[in-house]
Amino acid sequence: MIRLQGVRKTFRAGESAIHALDGVDLEIERGEFVAIMGQSGSGKSTMMNIIGLLDRPDEGAYLLSGRDVAALDEHARARLRGSAFGFVFQSYSLLPRMNALEQVELPLIYQGVRNRRRRAAEALVRVGLADRIGHTPTQLSGGEQQRVAIARSLVVDPLVVLADEPTGALDTATGHEVMTLLSDLVDQQGMTLILVTHEPEVAAFAHRSVRMRDGQIIEDTGRSGAANAEGSAPIR
Ligand SMILES: Nc1ncnc2c1ncn2[C@@H]1O[C@H](COP(=O)(O)OP(=O)(O)O)[C@@H](O)[C@H]1O
Ligand SMILES: [Mg+2]
User: Fold this and answer.
1) pTM greater than 0.85
2) Relative to the CA of 12, which ligand 1 atom is closest?
């Protein structure tokens, strides 16, 4: 469903060039749960931004469901971004004055979808927040705020949910609860999830892990979860 081929992205900082992505090949199928790991600065967020159509590759191909999306104009990219991807961030990115139901309705308003209230309420039920729909962020715990953000990412029925360090702001126990929820959404509700983390305990929830270093993929366990280098066939 997602196919990156030879993707490069370079940032300029004064005289020097930073090769944030230095020839990345990656394929992810529907229903996968992939953890992207690697040290700070290894290119994880840059890759997620390209996959989520928040940024473009300088070189290489990006095919989404077989369609070349690297070449789309800004308007088409924005439309596709809103319908194909759900985003979850470390910081939750909720709006301060809106209650949970209103936060989750927002992406549906942008898309002009009908039955918004009902769909938003259903998404909140899926994340276990049926009894918190009228609460604003300050009335919710960190874990609950992240679950609102997860509901907001799901409500459009995206192809893929992209989560960049979703447990980064949570204590261990709450992070574990959020990961259990995300795992259930993948295993029981057919969500496709790509998650960035530097914590092995968080990555352990995923079916597959991809490790980056200096803008390259240096290890990819494949769907079986058995470690192997360079994305070759899984070793069993
Ligand atoms: N907008 C940007 N401008 C300049 N350099 C950037 C920018 N975004 C990322 N970088 C650099 O690219 C490299 C990869 O960054 P990033 O993808 O954020 O890594 P990670 O998410 O793995 O920490 C880092 O060296 C970072 O400083
Ligand atoms: Mg990052």
Assistant:
1) yes
2) 4
CA distances from 138 to 73, 127, 230 (A): 38, 18, 45
Q: Does the Cβ of 13 fall within 6 Å of ligand 1? A: yes
Domain ranges for the chain: 30-52+74-220
Cβ–ligand 1 distance for 188 under 6 Å, the answer no
- Beta bridge partners of residue 63, listed in sequence order: 3, 68
The domain made up of 30-52+74-220 has a fold known as Rossmann fold (3.40.50)
Contact (CB, 8 A) for 5 and 69: no
pLDDT tens over the chain, length 236 residues: 999 999 999 999 889 999 999 999 999 999 999 999 999 999 999 999 999 999 999 999 999 999 999 889 999 999 999 999 999 999 999 999 999 999 999 999 988 889 999 999 999 999 999 999 999 999 999 999 999 999 999 999 999 999 999 999 999 999 999 999 999 999 998 999 999 998 999 999 999 999 999 999 999 999 865 444 444 444 43
Atom of ligand 1 nearest to the CA of 39: 22
Secondary structure (DSSP) of 77-112: HHHHHHHHEEEEETT----TT--HHHHHHHHHHHHT
